[in-house]
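Chain X:
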Amino acid sequence: MQTDGITIANKSFAQVASELAQDGLLFLLQENALQLREQLPQFNDPQFENQSLSFVLGDHVDLTSQETEFLTNQLGAIAVGLGPQSYLASHCIIYVLMELQKMNLIPTF
């Protein structure tokens, strides 16, 4: 079912992640990874112009080690971090959007 930009589908985590990886670059937000601001500039390049950017993050319960390994080893997800501090998932989303806007990778609202 789909309506106004919202899609409801009966898919597993692996299916959704695989579809996102096929559409473009897949990033995994992890606390101890290289900083997002250090990683993103390399993707502000014409060769990545038509690729989507997807970000996977956990909530108060981290992804399992199997999920993390699947994302990084099988799908090629790039681990990125937001700094030494832990943030709420909602704040991580806002931070990522702000960084993408600074680099003109998404339009400003």
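Chain Y:
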Amino acid sequence: MGEAPERPERPRLGRTVIALGFVSLLTDVASEMAYTQVPLFLTQVLGTRAGAVGLIEGIAESTASLMRLISGWLSDRSGRRKPIALWGYSFGAISKPLMALASLWPTVLFLRFLDRLGKGLRTAPRDALIAETTPAVIRGRAFGLHRTLDTTGAVIGPLLGVWFLLHASAGMRRFFLSAGHGSFFSALTAPGESGDLRRLFFFAGLPGLLAVLTLLFAVREKAVSPPSSAAARPPTFPRWRDLQPGYRRFLLAVLIFNLGNSADAFLVLRANQLGFSAGEILWLYAAFNMVEALLGYFAGTFSDKVGRRPLIIAGYLVFALVYLGFALASGKSAIWALFLLYGGYYTLTQGTQRAFAADLSDPRQRATQIGAYHTVVGVALLPASVIAGALFGWHPAAAFAYGAMMALLGALLLLSQRVPAASLQE
């Protein structure tokens, strides 16, 4: 009898993918610790109205989203990914401790913009780096692992925030009091919840700094020469017509969905209306992110087998169910269940949509065209958040009902379109 043929060895994920995952983990530790509290900081400490919260979140996300396209284009033109990503993570790192010193809502708007500007700079080059260092047959697994590590940070962040508020905030206050009331950091000596939130923002700068250092020293990119001929280079500015028809149809469905996907700040405000304190909201976010941290890798691997589109459609339907639940919720137990189910929406869509964008992008302009996906998501957030803010001020249920309706439309549009599952060129 002849020997059985050897099974081909399954490709492995590279060190770059794993290192970038830990960079995102540390960044999300900082972000989820700090920015889950921004809506409460704005409304309860600075006296800002809910409509202004929506405006702040929408402007920050949508204005910075343009950088996702520009940074991808610059990355393709230069042939470099890491330097642009490094600037992006650095902006995010410095914005959080500076939030501790804010006394007016325009300052919060600027710092939220700076943070989202950093996200816009780093996202497309980072995703292109993941795609280019991973075989196409395990691309879903690579993005799934990245989302799992990213979301693990989003679990650790709120838990670390709870620990800080309970055990470390008072010690930090005593430290800054010893430095004198006239110091630059006098805002950090305020008593009560106001001071606790400010000190929490300052503390969140530490994991942000560690993320920048990890990217600087642990991530290695393979140098890629920029295209030598003008014809091979990306166009002067990215154009809609440069995208393949299947990619354009996918982005249209993403746009429709995200016009109802307002900032998560409204989930925080709704939970606060139903009796959740700042510390309890951190627990909610930890539980919500735990779902994706546990299942995100498996969802990405599953999308390699069954395709991306079924998982994205399912995620949109879960989102619609969650938002309908927020519209109808009347007690704290319902909010716990809805936050856990919201983690299911993230599990099904976040890594899968990024992998699908990489599948459908032209390898010669990968960072640029991945940037187009992130730009569509970000641009939609301004009208989504402004509309939700206006509706929330009128009646909270109206804001969530609108989001559920747009999610259903996005799912139906994606379901009705034949989007190619394979990459264009590999």
